[in-house]
Amino acid sequence: MSIFSKARNFNVGGNIQIDSSQHVHNAQEKSIDASNAFYDSGARFDPPKCDEDTRVEVISEIMDWIGDRDSPKRLLCMTGAAGAGKSALQQTIAERCADSGILGCAIFFSSQDPTRNNLSRIVPTIGFQLGRHDPRLRDYIKEAVEEDPLIFTRTIRTQMDTLH
């Protein structure tokens, strides 16, 4: 039994607070909800995507690459000038994968949106999205978080090593 078991809503000093559910919070940190970065987030209303009859060959090539389970390449890096249509292409691919039931995770960053440009939310966002699709993975992530409730405050490398 904790010596604070009957204590509710108090400050330990500085910026540490304990709420009525016995959760510890750093009062200076603001929780950033990374769901705004999801491909289908309402915060990204009317995101850019390819018109029906455009980039057909590129979309087909990427979808074939995604479907090729024997390919040694597991990462696609898309580069190009601003305004070239990278986000539209990625949005189109994410939607097609979601429609096909093969989308594991899609994250859309934005330098203009502070809820979508925080690197500290990348691992929990990936874990959340992947866990929604695979109950075994969800259970594994849940166990890891229960073992270390502060895992998502650690370095990204530690988070990835713990949840790999």
TrEMBL record:
Question: Repeat as a keyword?
Answer: yes
Q: Where is the Nephrocystin 3-like N-terminal domain?
A: 61-162
Q: What is this protein called?
A: Nephrocystin 3-like N-terminal domain-containing protein
Membrane-spanning parts: none
Gene3D superfamilies assigned: P-loop containing nucleotide triphosphate hydrolases (3.40.50.300)
Q: Does the keyword Repeat apply?
A: yes
The species this protein was found in: Candolleomyces eurysporus
Report the superkingdom from the record. Answer: Eukaryota
| Region forming the signal peptide | none
**Which Pfam families does this chain map to?**
NPHP3_N
Question: What are the entry keywords?
Answer: Repeat
